[in-house]
Amino acid sequence: MRRREFIGICTGLVAGWPLAALAEETAIPIIGYLSSKGPAAETNIVAAVRAGLAQNDFIEGRNIAIEFRWSDGNYERLPALAAELVDRNVRVLLTSGLPATFAAQKATQRIPIVFRLAVDPVAFGLVQNLSRPGGNLTGVTMLFDPLTPKKLQLLHELIPGATSVGFLINPRNPNAASHRQYAEAATQSMGLRVTMLSAGDPAELESALSAARQQGIEMILVGDDPFFDVSSRQITRGAAGHRIPTMYYVRDFTAAGGLISYGPTFSEMAQQAGEYAGRILKGADPAELPVRQPTKFELVINLKAATALGLAVPPSIINRADEVIE
Question: Please, what are the domains in the chain?
């Protein structure tokens, strides 16, 4: 090879190195979104996540991309879906629900994970403590279990003569044991008889609601679960069809025709999770980002559903309600 050609090749290679490095550094980062639910159940949630990202100047399609994976309430699909996102080398993993968070945790100890869930992440081994998570996970938790006594009190205030309550849980969710523990303690202190109703798919859900009616259960408390979010219309219609007053954990159920709900707003939590994802993309360490908790809780009552059940809603509930659906 002639000396001039050799120098030209070397010069071209050297000139190409910074360009290749620059292209790699300026590639649009990908955020993975792994959900225990389905897209229809998370339309408003995803919008809130995008709003949280925008707080850090990250706009989907402009300077970030988001890849979604949905299990549609089938938790057995989550490990494979988590592995797909890890293989895509996403910069951050956003997880919705405890099953999705567990799947992501098992799939990677390298990629930062921002969760949105309803249990104590310390008790479930996701973080070391709430103020300093200490690993690759942080996020937002709503701690639904401690709200169980409050929800039971509201439901019993609506049906004061009731002596029995059914508690609907999904045995496929790792939070089922915790739900049971809190429900049994709360009902015992109130002198109520509790029956556990288990459902993890649509057929089991219909059977559980039918069993509640056959057993004479007077009211139902629904434990939080992503599968129940996906099945909100089946649950609200089933409870109405069997004429059993039912307490839900978020407004979405009451808006879909359910009787009453008490809990945090999912959109607030989702925006907080999106904001955390944006901060991590800018260099924040998830180990140093405290686990957040919601600040807004809302009581929603559906008067149309109450009328259909023949219930007179006491003024004490109406006056405390954040929203009355007529």
Answer: 29-143+266-288 (3.40.50.2300), 145-264+297-325 (3.40.50.2300)
